[in-house]
TrEMBL record:
Protein's recorded name: Saccharopine dehydrogenase [NAD(+), L-lysine-forming]
Encoding gene per record: sdh
One Pfam family from the record: AlaDh_PNT_C
Highest taxon of the lineage: Bacteria
Catalysis: reaction(s): L-saccharopine + NAD(+) + H2O = L-lysine + 2-oxoglutarate + NADH + H(+)
Species classification: Bacteria, Bacillati, Actinomycetota, Actinomycetes, Pseudonocardiales
Length: 346
């Protein structure tokens, strides 16, 4: 798309090391005529100099609010609280379309500032399938942490690693365990299954067919549960406070989806996410891992795979059905919160 300008912002979250573009994919887009600026960041898994060598212009961190209005601002996780009003078109995971806590405030910032959220979760093809996602590595990391916790080897703070080192940790000190992955057929579920297999676990895989009528007794007869279900609407919980009072083998839950506070929350036994500093929340004798940026524990692999999927769509930003559907999702979300001005409906 001729004349397209992107600015890749620095992530404000201290534990976020991923990026939406790798130096390689940025270089490919530059050769296609896309102009790319990259905010400097000491935390990003790829160094500033690697982006500069690919041809990107380096700019100071936090400079995106002053960028020209036609620039698309690209990131991954949440925006800082300032500026209050957002005038640019932003591409990132907004987590604002399932009535999550803070969703209305974020959408209001866009609606009142004249900008737009092109949510990465809403980049879908004609069949509604995500075109770029971190799901595989989220599942892999979540399941790996659950195994390490089951062995008594997991404590905070967590630090980023590479798959080869994580696999070595999974292969060491093996002991028999039974693990259940719900949502096993998706990207996230496949990643979880691969990590559990690397750890020598006996893996049970459930998807839509197995959860239509949930066998709670069978669920509780596993050591580990990994929830990898991508819910888009209210869902019948897999576990409740009452369920946990039943006899069970289950000792560790990794909730990769982290839909806490939303009607899509499949595990309402907990009400807050966990962190890199404090990765485990104890609930009625059950260890819950609910970290909402799990793929950043494997930032290199996660960035390389995600960027390869996303870059072709970014190069055609605003000029395809994928982006039109993302814009429609933003408009629908704003409408549901009664945030659009009357002239916006004209």
């Amino acid at each position: 798309m001729t004349g397209l300008t992107l600015l890749m912002r620095e992530e404000s979250r201290p534990t976020e090391r991923r990026a939406p573009l790798s130096p390689e994919t940025a270089g490919d887009m530059l050769r296609e005529g896309v102009a790319i600026s990259v905010e400097r960041s000491p935390r990003r898994v790829f160094h500033d100099e690697e982006y500069a060598a690919a041809g990107c212009a380096l700019v100071p961190p936090g400079s995106w609010p002053d960028a020209p209005e036609d620039v698309y601002v690209v990131g991954l996780k949440e925006l800082p609280d300032r500026p209050c009003l957002l005038r640019h078109r932003h591409v990132f995971f907004g987590h604002a379309y399932k009535n999550q806590p803070g969703a209305r405030d974020l959408l209001r910032r866009f609606a009142e500032g004249g900008g737009a959220l092109l949510d990465l979760e809403s980049l879908v093809d004609e069949r509604g399938r995500r075109v770029a996602a971190f799901g595989y590595w989220a599942g892999y990391a979540g399941a790996a942490l659950a195994v390490l916790r089951h062995r008594g080897e997991l404590a905070g703070p967590l630090t980023p690693t590479r798959r080869e080192d994580l696999d070595k940790a999974l292969a060491a000190h093996r002991k028999p365990l039974r693990a259940l992955v719900i949502g096993a057929l998706g990207r996230c579920g496949r990643g979880a299954g691969d990590a559990l297999t690397a750890a020598g676990a006996e893996v049970t895989r459930w998807d839509l067919e197995e959860t239509e009528t949930l066998d709670v007794t069978a669920l509780l007869d596993h050591d580990i549960l990994v929830n990898a279900v991508l819910a888009t609407g209210p869902i019948t919980p897999f576990l409740t406070a009452g369920t946990l009072r039943r006899p069970r083998r289950l000792s560790v839950v990794a909730d990769v989806t982290c839909d806490v506070g939303s009607p899509c929350h499949a595990l309402p036994i907990y009400d807050r996410t966990t962190t890199w500093q404090d990765p485990v929340h104890r609930v009625d004798g059950l260890d819950v891992i609910a970290i909402d940026n799990l793929p950043s524990l494997l930032p290199c692999e996660a960035t390389v795979d995600f960027a390869a999927d996303l870059a072709p769509y970014l190069a055609a930003l605003g000029d395809s059905g994928v982006w039109r559907r993302a814009e429609a999702a933003f408009t629908a979300a704003c409408t549901s919160h009664d945030l659009l001005r009357k002239e916006d409906h004209a």
